[in-house]
Amino acid sequence: MTLGKVFIIGAGPGSPDLISLRGYRALVAADAVLADRLLPRDFLEQLGIPAGDKFVQWLGDEQPRWSQEAINEWLVLHAESGKTVARLKGGDPLVFGRGDDEIQCLADRGIPWEVIPGPSSCTAVPTAAGHPLTRHARDRSFAVATARVTGGAIQESFPRADSLVVMMGVGVLPLVVARLLDDGWAPDTPAAVVERGTLPWERRLAGPLSQIAALARRASVGSPALVILGGAAVASGAHGVRPRVLFTGLDPEGFRDLGELLHWPALETVPDEEGRRMLRSVFARLRRNGFDWMVIAGKLAATSLFAAMAERGVDARILAGAKIAAIGRATAIRLRERFVQPDAVADGVEDSAWLDQLAGQRVAAIHGTHASQELRNRLDEVAASVAHVTLHSVAPHPELGRPLPDHDAIYFVSPSGVHAFWDAYGPAAFREEVWCLGEATQAALAAHGVEARIVVPCLQARRLERPESAAVE
């Protein structure tokens, strides 16, 4: 049997959309994937890569934790069976990642391999959090170190530079601080901690070196987190004037211009099995040219649709007999990523021009249970017939209840998100300025006694203006 090939892929600091294009293509081509435990479990789904036809193994799924030898043997086993294998590693494979051990094993066994770099968290997380590791004519050097050496002991000394990034040190931060102070770092050296950088539930805190361990302990900061010291611990001027926005929607794409976004999703998606069963009859009708239009309401609906198509062994050719309407620009982008060009793109129900094209037509509407009732009603009004297919529902996110990070504003995109946050936190989550996407969400906030301002991405005021009545007393 022909040997397979192993791609050693740097996934980046955690957020799936920070992977490289080369890494994405290797994941698409892979038959088997071995992924690091700290990466999001929906990593492939968020990239729009169907996982149903791949063998996917997560290192955190089994106890005890995998040894490096077991990882190496897994890669060899699947490559020797002729599979294309993706070893998906957080950050960059050759930066504190033992990628060199895996490469050496593959080389010794005569297995073809290719390493694909990715953004290391030691640089990507500070950048994403607004901490420049260098500044022109000011901070000209930075160093990176792990908190521990092989065997688990604390580093005897840390490198000196204008800025220092300490990785894997939050669990022993008091010892790290003590060692740094002994090394001559001043007690008032600026320090910052970024927990879960680029991922949902990210938190950031800052203070002098002498107090940073106590601040992290009081905030119950956990792994993964990194520590930034020196000039880089001070946010850049441009970042410092932007509001810190706690974003509670499912997908932050398209909202990052609101400010320094911290993604704290109020809801999670749950597959709707009844809707997926209904999709079989929709596919059958598509084969018979039984629909004139397909309306895909949201990026997540598009992702769910392609995942269901992959499970049934069909591809984009099944959509050829119907025109496609995409609700939202992110939806259109996801469709184009799968080489489906939408015939109409609408920002929402209020964009009525596309609805006129559906008058008297046979329509299949693909969406989630949280799709607006207004959209459903308008489709039912104008079309000759509508088959509503719900591929996923939403539920309060099980991680709600984590200690809230410091923020200047909180942003809601749906009434269900409002209710989930209220149930988890009560008035405490609404003490800062409250922003929302539309009138229905604004009404849901008003029902809890919260006055909110409708803020549209790309059109919002750049300065944070806090109405006197925005807070809940």
Structure, briefly:
By secondary structure, the chain is of the alpha/beta class. It has 15 helices and 21 strands.
Unreliable stretches covering 5 or more consecutive residues: 459-473
**Top-tier CATH class of the largest domain:** Alpha Beta
What is the CATH topology classification name of the largest domain? Answer: Rossmann fold
What is the CATH architecture term of the largest domain?
Answer: 3-Layer(aba) Sandwich
**DSSP summary, beta strand count:** 21
Tag the structure with descriptive keywords.
473 residues, alpha/beta, Cobalt-precorrin-4 Transmethylase, domain 1, Methyltransferase, Cobalt-precorrin-4 Transmethylase, Domain 2, Rossmann fold, 4 domains, six-stranded mixed β-sheet, five-stranded parallel β-sheet, 15 helices, 21 strands, 29% helix, globular, disordered C terminus
Textual characterization of the structure:
This protein is an alpha/beta fold and 473 residues long. It folds into 4 domains: 5-119, Cobalt-precorrin-4 Transmethylase, domain 1, CATH 3.40.1010; 123-236, Tetrapyrrole methylase, C-terminal domain (Methyltransferase, Cobalt-precorrin-4 Transmethylase, Domain 2); 242-266 and 398-454, Rossmann fold; 270-396, Rossmann fold, CATH 3.40.50.10090. It is built from 15 helices and 21 strands. It has helices spanning 21-29, 43-46, 68-80, 99-108, 121-128, 173-182, 209-218, 237-240, 273-287, 299-311, 329-337, 353-356, 373-382, 415-425, 439-447, and strands at 5-10, 32-35, 55-58, 84-89, 113-116, 142-146, 163-167, 190-195, 203-208, 225-230, 244-247, 260-263, 267-271, 293-297, 323-327, 344-346, 362-368, 385-396, 409-412, 433-436, 453-454. The strands form 4 sheets. Strands 13-18-17-14-15-16 form a 6-stranded mixed beta sheet. β15 (323-327), α11 and β16 form a beta-alpha-beta unit. α6 packs antiparallel against α7 (209-218) and α10 packs parallel to α11 (329-337). The longest helix is centred in the middle third of the chain and has 15 residues, at 273-287.
